[in-house]
Amino acid sequence: MNQIVSLxxxxxxxxxxxxxxxxxxxxxxxxxxxxxxxxxxxxxxxCIPLLNRFALWIGIYYMPTFVFMMTILFILGLLVRQTMSxxxxxxxxxxxxxELAVMEKKMLELQQAVEGREKH
Length: 120
What we know:
- The protein has one domain (about 1-120).
- It has four helices and no strands.
- The protein has helices at about 1-20, 30-45, 50-55, 65-120.
- Helix 1 (about 1-20) packs antiparallel against helix 2.
- The longest helix is centred in the last third of the chain and has 57 residues, at about 65-120.
């Protein structure tokens, strides 16, 4: 029964990710990550007995603990990736703002030079 419920939930998640990707509400670079995650969830739901054996093999006697541990590690990985992306975006925003300020200064200087020529 647990396997059927897990399979239904992960398939529903996969369908949601596909719908978000098709409607372009989820960008391609992130969609690939989420599609792989959803597919891994479906495979994990199909292989619950194997996950039980693997958890026992590595010394975890309660398989949901293993699943929660893997989920937390995955979420931490996503947070690191998002933080890196946010840092990159922040650096880019700073550079673009500086470039815009330089361009505005040059444009103002050109306008002043043109106005100065028109007066003479």
